[in-house]
Amino acid sequence: MIKSMKKYETVEEYLRLQSPQSRRMLKQIRRTIKELVPEAEELISYNMPAFKYLGILAFYAGCRQHIGFYPTASPIVQFKKELEKYQTSKGAIQFPIGEPLPLSLIRKMIRFKKMENIENHYFRTKARG
Fold first, then answer.
1. What is the DSSP letter of 64?
2. Average pLDDT over residues 94-101
3. What is the CATH number of domain 11-128?
C-alpha cells in the first residue's frame, strides 16, 4: 500500500515540516520574493509553497538532495546561461542543499516573471475590450 502524501494547509506548516537545512534555504527564497513583490499572494498550490501576482511567479519546494525552484519555463529560457551550473528542466531548477542559493539570480528571475505577468495581464485585459 502506498502511503498518502501529507496535504499542507499553509506555507508555515510546509516549512515547519522540512529539514533544518532545507527550511533555511526555503525561507531565503520566501523572503527574497516577498521583498521584491510584497503585493504577491502567498499560497500552497500543487502541495508546495507558491507566489502569485497576476499569474504564478514561482513555486518552491524542499526535496531530499535539493531545493526545487519552479519559476515556469520563460525565466529558465531567459537566464539559461546563468543557470548552466544547475540541473534544470523546462520549468524547474534544482539548487543543491548545502550550497549557497544564487539569490541575485533568483531576484532577476522573479523581476522578469513579474514583468512578464504584468505584460500578459495588460494584453489579456486589452483584448477583452
1. S
2. 96
3. 3.90.1150.200
Cell numbers at 77, concatenated: 529560457
Average pLDDT, the chain: 93
Measured in degrees and rounded to the nearest 5, phi and psi for residue 66 equal -155, 170
The pLDDT, as a whole number, for residue 69 is: 98
* Signed CA dihedral, 35, 37, 40, 42: sign only: negative
CB 11 within 8 A of CB 30: yes
pTM: 0.90
Residue 80: φ, ψ to 5°: -50, -45
Burial label, 127 (beta-carbon count in 10 A; 0-12, 13-18, 19+): exposed
